[in-house]
């Protein structure tokens, strides 16, 4: 099977964005012998961006592969690539829970950027995998740090480091110990409790863009429709909207599994879970056309490690789709990205609400 045949869809595609890389190939090469010796159902894959690890293993004969991908677009890209290759029945997608790793013999892991995310994964594997499990954790050298070794050593008695190849490296962990199920970290910010699992953007902190948006959200919001927190992350905006507007319901969505789990915990910790609905979805696919009147958005501007405006423009277009005529999209964005023309084109007339040396908050009115 050629990894070059894989596609990223429905994730963004374009120059500099590929569905596999040298780290995938090195993980597959280093794990080949261990994978061939594993029983059916003994292989687990975590963090497979678009299916390269899972489908190459399936093409080599593995079956019953258990897979966890934080991004919903990654899950859907894996499914689409599997369909293209006729490998649909070779794997199942599962949450980052015990059933994912129970009695696993081999784990293939794309190293996450966050040490907290790596700790959650390593602790779960150490708690529930087979005593003889071997973890092949790889990534690009520019995204790897020595602290990753320390995290793995906290949960495994043995750690080997492979030679680098094509600017990639694999850490091989054995002898699991000190495992536990992941739990959200909790931090209070001026009375707002933020809960975060390891993979959630910004962790239990409130990133500076979100802080700036919170400072400038409108005091009055439309009655009737739910208020929408688009790309909700840990649920900071959703919980704040629910606290500020006790007569309103809030709908929050994110494609990240760790973000959704974190947002659910944040809503519960702040006593607003009964009025906040949080779903894992790509964009606002669960909402109908012209169905809401207020959307708040702090859009991401990276796909993996690649800077791109394609994610934000997709979000602007979908926000425009779900807004009623006269409804508003309130957005915070890095001022250097110059999103205002796209907001004008995809949503409607856009006014600046606030600006500081780094960020701009705008409100766009649906035509």
TrEMBL record:
Signal peptide: none
Keywords: Methyltransferase, Transferase
InterPro entries attached to this UniProt entry: RlmG_N (IPR058679), RsmC/RlmG (IPR046977), SAM-dependent_MTases_sf (IPR029063), Small_mtfrase_dom (IPR007848)
GO biological process, alphabetically ordered: methylation
Pfam families: MTS, RLMG_N
Domain spans labelled RlmG N-terminal: 5-174
Gene3D superfamilies assigned to the protein according to its UniProt record, in alphabetical order: Vaccinia Virus protein VP39
One example GO MF annotation: S-adenosylmethionine-dependent methyltransferase activity
Keyword Disulfide bond set for record: no
Residues covered by the Methyltransferase small domain: 193-362
PANTHER family documented for this protein: RIBOSOMAL RNA LARGE SUBUNIT METHYLTRANSFERASE G, RIBOSOMAL RNA SMALL SUBUNIT METHYLTRANSFERASE C
Name used for this protein in its record: Methyltransferase
Source species of the chain: Microbacterium ulmi
Upper taxonomic lineage: Bacteria, Bacillati, Actinomycetota, Actinomycetes, Micrococcales
């Amino acid at each position: 099977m050629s990894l070059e045949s894989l596609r990223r869809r429905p994730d963004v595609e374009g120059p500099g964005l590929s569905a596999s890389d040298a780290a995938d190939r090195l993980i597959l090469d280093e794990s080949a012998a261990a994978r061939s010796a594993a029983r059916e159902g003994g292989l687990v894959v975590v963090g497979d961006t678009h299916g390269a690890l899972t489908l190459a293993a399936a093409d080599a004969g593995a079956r019953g592969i258990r897979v966890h991908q934080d991004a919903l677009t990654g899950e859907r890209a894996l499914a689409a690539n599997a369909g293209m290759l006729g490998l649909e029945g070779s794997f199942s997608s599962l949450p980052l829970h015990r059933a994912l790793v129970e009695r696993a013999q081999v784990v293939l892991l794309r190293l996450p950027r966050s040490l907290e995310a790596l700790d959650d994964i390593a602790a779960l594997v150490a708690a529930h995998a087979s005593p003889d499990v071997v973890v092949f954790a790889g990534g690009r050298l520019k995204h790897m740090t020595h602290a990753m070794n320390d995290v793995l050593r906290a949960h495994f008695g043995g750690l080997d480091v492979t030679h680098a190849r094509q600017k990639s490296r694999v850490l091989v962990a054995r002898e699991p110990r000190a495992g536990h199920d992941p739990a959200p970290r909790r931090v209070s910010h001026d009375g707002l409790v933020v809960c975060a699992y390891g993979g959630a953007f910004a962790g239990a902190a409130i990133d500076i863009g979100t802080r700036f948006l919170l400072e400038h959200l409108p005091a009055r919001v439309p009655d009737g429709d739910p208020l929408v927190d688009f790309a909700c992350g840990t649920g900071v905006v959703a919980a704040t909207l629910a606290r500020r507007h006790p007569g309103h319901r809030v709908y929050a969505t994110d494609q990240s599994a760790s973000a959704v789990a974190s947002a659910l915990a944040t809503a519960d910790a702040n006593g607003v879970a009964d009025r906040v609905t949080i779903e894992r979805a790509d964009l606002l696919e669960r909402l109908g056309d012209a169905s809401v009147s207020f959307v708040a958005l702090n859009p991401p501007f990276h796909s993996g490690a690649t800077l791109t405006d394609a994610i934000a423009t997709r979000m602007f277009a979908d926000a425009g789709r779900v807004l009623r005529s006269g409804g508003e999209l309130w957005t915070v964005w890095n001022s250097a990205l110059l999103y205002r023309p796209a907001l004008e084109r995809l949503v409607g007339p856009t006014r600046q609400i606030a600006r500081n040396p780094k960020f701009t908050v705008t409100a766009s009115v649906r035509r």
